[in-house]
Amino acid sequence: MSPTPLQILLVEDHAPLREQVAALLRGAGHRVAEASDGRLGLQQALADLPDVLVLDLGLPGLDGLQVCQRLRREAARHVPTLMLTARDALADKLAGFATGADDYLVKPFAPEELLARVAALARRPQAGQDFELQVGSLSIDRRAREAYRQGQRLALPPLAFQLLLLLAEAHPRALTRSELIHRLWDDDPPESDPLRSHLYQLRQQLDKPFSPPATPMLKTVHGIGFRLESDACKDG
Ligand code: CA
């Protein structure tokens, strides 16, 4: 199956890698614009509003996090962003999620992995549309990185927010533990049961204040993983 051709902006200062990634994306049928520093990349992203932004973290001018932050603030709509990073420390990921990168890829990466992540970002229901995601009485504002249930703001730490966002994007489908772990930490989770504390924080904010009488939205699917269930009507 050949992928839908996408307009991609690639911001990477390391010329050999930029050329290699651009060639890879073009080879898959995508149209690719290139920028070699953060300032030019931001200008171009704001002007073009690409389908997907592939953004290096370490850049001259503005770094990837600053580009992401300003793009979230200034762009007319959500630009799905894949951050490339040589640094796979958890602290970098937290910072990246907080400033609004949608996904991460740690260098060096396999070519198929980059193509798959880019395609997945472009396929997300909200890609290139608006900033709001709604599941029952839950609404998520991607731009502000805020979530509300019944109009009440949920005080979620960055990883618990990211977990909720992944589940909301997958709704009504369940995500497996390993999918969630992979999306949050690539192949390098910080501990043996890394989801536990973030799921706990999410439940405390998303469900505890509302249920009962409202239905808990975060469901454990035994032997599979987790899913969100709408509290407005029956799913399915
Ligand atoms: Ca770089």
Give a description of the structure.
With 236 residues, the protein is an alpha/beta fold. The chain folds into two domains: 7-123, 3-Layer(aba) Sandwich (Rossmann fold), CATH 3.40.50; 132-228, Arc Repressor Mutant, subunit A (Orthogonal Bundle). 39% of the residues lie in helices and 21% in strands. The chain is built from eight helices and twelve strands. The protein has helices spanning 15-27, 38-48, 64-74, 90-99, 111-123, 158-170, 177-185, 195-206, and strands at residues 7-11, 31-35, 52-56, 81-85, 103-106, 132-135, 138-141, 146-149, 152-154, 175-176, 218-221, 225-228. Strands 2-1-3-4-5 form a five-stranded parallel β-sheet, with helices on both faces. Strands 6-7-8-9 form a four-stranded antiparallel β-sheet, with helices on one face. The mean pLDDT is 87. The chain binds calcium ion. Calcium ion (CA) binds next to loops. Calcium ion binds at residues 13-14, 56, 58-59.
Low-confidence stretches are: none
CATH class designation of the largest domain: Alpha Beta
Query: What would you call the structural class?
Result: alpha/beta
Mean pLDDT across every amino acid position: 87
Order of helices and strands: EHEHEHEHEHEEEEHEHHEE
Topology (SSEs and partners):
Blueprint: E1 7-11, H1 15-27, E2 31-35, H2 38-48, E3 52-56, H3 64-74, E4 81-85, H4 90-99, E5 103-106, H5 111-123, E6 132-135, E7 138-141, E8 146-149, E9 152-154, H6 158-170, E10 175-176, H7 177-185, H8 195-206, E11 218-221, E12 225-228
Parallel strand pairs: 1-2, 1-3, 3-4, 4-5
Antiparallel strand pairs: 6-7, 7-8, 8-9, 10-12, 11-12
Helix pairs in contact: 2-3, 6-8
Calcium ion is lined by residues 13-14, 56, 58-59.
